[in-house]
Amino acid sequence: MIDALTRWSKERPDSQALIGDQYALSYRELAAAVERFGTQLRAAPARAIALALDNSPLWAVLDLAGLHAGKPVIPLPFFFSAEQVAHSIRDAGIDCILTDQPEQYRKILAAAGIETSEALTHTFNNQTFSEIRLRNIAARALPAGTVKVTYTSGTTGHPKGVCLNADALQQVAASLLAATRGGADDRHVCVLPLSTLLENLAGVYVPLLAGASCHLLPLAEVGLSGSTGLDVKKMLAALIQCRATTTILTPQLLHALVAAIEAGHPAPQQLRFVAVGGAPVATRLLQRAETLGIPVFEGYGLSECTSVVALNTGAERCLGSVGKPLAHAQVKFAGDGEILVAGATLLGYTGDAPVQAGEGASTKFWPTGDIGHLDEQGFLHLTGRKKNIFITSFGRNVSPEWVERELTLHPAIAQAAVFGEARPWNVAVIVPRGATPEAIGAVNQAIEEANRVLPDYAQVKYWLPAQTPFLPQNGQLTANGRLKREAIWQLYQPAIEQLYKENSTENV
Predict the structure, then answer these.
(1) For 3-102, where are the E strands, in sequence order?
(2) Which domains, ranges and CATH numbers included, belong to the chain?
(3) Please, are residues 66 and 147 in contact by the beta-carbon 8 Å criterion?
(4) Half-sphere CA count of 432, side-chain side, radius 13 A
(5) Upper half-sphere CA count for residue 476 (Cβ side, 13 Å)
(6) Is 150 helix (H, G, I), strand (E, B) or coil?
(7) Mind listing the pLDDT tens digit for each residue in 163-199?
């Protein structure tokens, strides 16, 4: 990355690299700023540096400066709870926080009993940020070569710190640049928080490798608030005003974008590549986007594999798949169908021993926990999460995501969660598109149609209407669109158990 900046600072010195709401940086200015802050970080006593800032050119400058200095940088998401922030600080041995919200962090640190030695104020292009130095934080022995620690939020418990090196980041960024055919004329608009590895890597590193420009607006200006709040009109306005050619969305954001355009809001006209990932994407949603002329391409990845592993592209696309593996990635499968990935995998987790390379670094296959297969054309298909598979009382393995995908292909069903562990038949909790008798009848018809393409052991016998949609706000959906199955089960377990009780003589 640093080599690319140096190159573009000479070949395209006056071209805009980073554009914020208050200032922009040319490639010459960006390279100089990264060199300046990198030198300061290298000389500073800090061992591990946290970034806790809103999206802005400054965020990217400090991130790249840490890369230049060879010191671990740990992005801290603002959607983390105070407890998760405190855990991350101790877990990674963070002894310096760079933030544009010092008061918020002082409160978090005080509540967690973390002492500070001093807080320095810095200004960059009239943008002020604080450097908070922490006391009595035990050093953590991160794997050798760690330059970034990205925390996976998961669904419960403490987040896990994934340690990555510069070579892995470079490999994935280069693969994405080639796959998306990025060029110097691109204008990427960051919609996701830069603390998200996908946006950090694909939204900043990739455009900079291409010599393109990256728009880094405060999250409020692209319509995001907290972890789930969205003003889709602001998001559309930002994409239109910046004349975005590329952007990255989660399934929830894509759904909001599609719904808004279908309702008559103007569509961004310059977009050529909209990457969508973070959770499975309903095929019908991709079809709706395609009808509107939105160039959407589904991908797949995970933090442990430095984000993106596979991606559909303009040249090679298969609806219903997550695309072909990127150039750097090798994919194979365990006996149970689990996807194993080599190439640009993690060095290890914080607090754990480094991951061993086995036969060598190039053949270090990581067990993803996802079940899938490659088709004859080489496209990767996901069928579910290994840990979510349940076994019926007849001994059949069922991936609920597989059944849910078939159900939500039908317009009558907005969302579905399928259960059937140790039972003779399966039950679905369904969010219908409407509460009228006609809407309920349409759900029954949709289930019948889905059952025709499912084997008998995977079919849905009965269903329950959900009390409310599955949302991050009610704890039934993660921020990136994955079902929180345990939370849904806990809420609907009494009703599901009653269904089994009332129909216990069937198929037994």
Answers:
(1) 16-19, 24-26, 49-52, 73-75, 96-99
(2) 163-334+378-383 (3.40.50.12780), 389-502 (3.30.300.30)
(3) yes
(4) 18
(5) 18
(6) strand
(7) 999 999 999 999 999 999 999 999 999 999 999 999 9
